[in-house]
Amino acid sequence: MASPKPRGSSFATSSRTHLRPSRVTIDDSFFTETKNTQKHKLSQKQKTLSCQFSTGGHLSPWPTYTSGQTILHNRKPCSDDYRKRAGSWQQQPLNTTKPRYLEQLENYLRKELLLLDLGTDSAQELRLQPYREIFEFFIEDFKTYKPLLSSIKNAYEVMLAHQRERIRALEPLKAKLVAVNEDCNERILAMRAEERYEISTLKKEKMNLLKLIDKKNEEKISLQSEVTKLRKNLAEEYLHYLTERDARKILIADLNELRYQREDMSLAQSPGIWGEDPVKLTLALKMTRQDLTRTQMELNTMKANFGDVVPRRDFEMQEKTNRDLQEQLDSLRDDYEEVRKEHEILLQLHMSTLKERDQFYSELQESQRTSTPRPDWTKCEDVVAGGRDRWQMLAEGKNSDQLVDVLLEEIGEGLLREKDFFPGLGYGEDIPPFLRFDGIVENKKPTKKDVVNLLKDVWKERLAEEQKEKFPNFFFNFLERRFGPGDAMAWAYTIFENIKLFRSNEVMSQFYAVLMGKRSESVYTKQKETIAQLLKEMTNVDSQNEGLLTMEQLSTVLKSTFPLKKEEKIQELMEAGGWHPNSSNADLLNYRSLFMEDEEGQSMPFVQKLWEQYMDEKDEYLQELKQELGLELRDEVTLSKIREALMNIDPSLDKQTLNSYLSQAFQLPVTEVPEEGEEEGIVIWLQTALERLHMADIRRMGPREQEPAS
């Protein structure tokens, strides 16, 4: 007999198919197939669960048609009806059995969990599927709460999908983290292996030193035992010789006694031989025996007094042996003390080495963390115009900072070529007079050679000018005379941009410094005069006018032209000119080639070294001035103090040169520089004075007087 279906069962069965598509589909192919298979099983099992009989032979009304004890029909928790029903629930007995529908759902959940294969990667996703099905049963059977439960389910599904996407996105980071972790572990292991190797080396060295000390101690002990043995043998030999001496003396006495007895017997047997009176002989014998007794007593006294005396020869031999052994012992003691001190020094050195190693390791880690890797300058070969050969020529003898300047010049040159116009800078007071223009000006795009030749023409006309005007105004007037008023401004901007960019070019950098007021014109003119004077001196020495000088002649000319330069400075100039330590003084040098320039105005190394030495000597001169003043850069200094300090460090300064230095430092006309004793009230910051002097042509006029030796 077929049992009647509960109300709402058909609706639940038919609506499940409509609700399933709203669920979030899992991306795993395996789980998708499992889900489709279980989807069909869910539909069949749900029908089966919906048609189960209750204990009374009817279908269980749970959860759709339960009494008021189970489902509240839209009652608010705070209403009176809710309180009455709650009271009625409390009055009912506690032996209410669990609804059969709930038991069937729990059994179904338990069976589904047992059937799952939890050994795969998607085990957690599969484990959620039975719970989804149970929750769908509730959604389908609880009609009143179906919208709320569906929204809750969908919210959780969306959140789970979002979390899965985040997990997938973090998978590459996890792999990268593992790779970084392995790299760090390898580096740590390498450092530890290196440390273990160093420690083992130091331990081996320590063990070798300890073995050496033990060996020295053993040698010392053996020498001490040998000395003790020699002393014992010496005492035994002394006793042996003493006994032999006493026995010899006793034997000699016995022999003398026997000889005397034999003589007495012979005299008694033949008294007529001597023809003497027996009484007289007896008396003589008695006196002789008395002498013998006295002599024997004296001998015994001598034995008693000098029995322990060693012969001088034996004493000297033993004393020499003892002295040699003592010297050996002292030498061994000194060696032992030296080895002990060396061991202590090595221990201290070992400890300091360990500390330095730890410090260097910390500095290495810090530098590895903060420092940037050194650039690979060979990469510029493919970027710079001219390729590898030109880059090697540009990079020769330059450090990283200079290479950056060269690279910036190359890049800036390309950008400068691309510009067709320059924007005008306006008419502000901070704008140089030759750049005051409002609008755009044309980029004339000259080559570096053209710019260098133009700047040389500017210097030639400037040096030939009789009435000097300010250099920026003269520069613009020169451009107007050369190119006309219409193109003068365009050429001014073009030349300014070029000399501002190419700082490594000697002609352009010096012209830029003078044009912008960072260096006095006298610096350039004095340098040119010095070079001309040096060339003239070399020409005078070259009597044959062949353009050749020996190294000895070159050294003589340099020393006579620069009498204040030290010997090492003269050596640097000769090396810049082509002299080498293994060269002989008779080697010839083409001195005219030292003063030649390339097409871009770059001087030869000899002239560049002259300029470097001039700048270094100026810095040393100003540093001596600062030390003589004994002030900080932020302190104020008077004109009288600077005058006094200049005279102290350079006593050979004449009045005219001294006044020119003071006028440059205090920005006063030379004619208005006060005389000595009239400088009151003229004060300036020391830093400002030194900066102004650095801009001017300032150099030592004579040697500084040495203080007399005390």
Automatic annotation (TrEMBL):
The keyword Coiled coil appears for this protein: yes
One Pfam family from the record: TSNAXIP1_N
InterPro entries named among the record's database cross-references: TSNAXIP1_N
Every Translin-associated factor X-interacting protein 1 N-terminal domain range: 106-215
Keywords: Coiled coil
Any coiled-coil regions, as ranges: 199-233, 315-349
Domain of life assignment: Eukaryota
KW Cytoplasm (keyword) present: no
Protein name, UniProt field: Translin-associated factor X-interacting protein 1 isoform X1
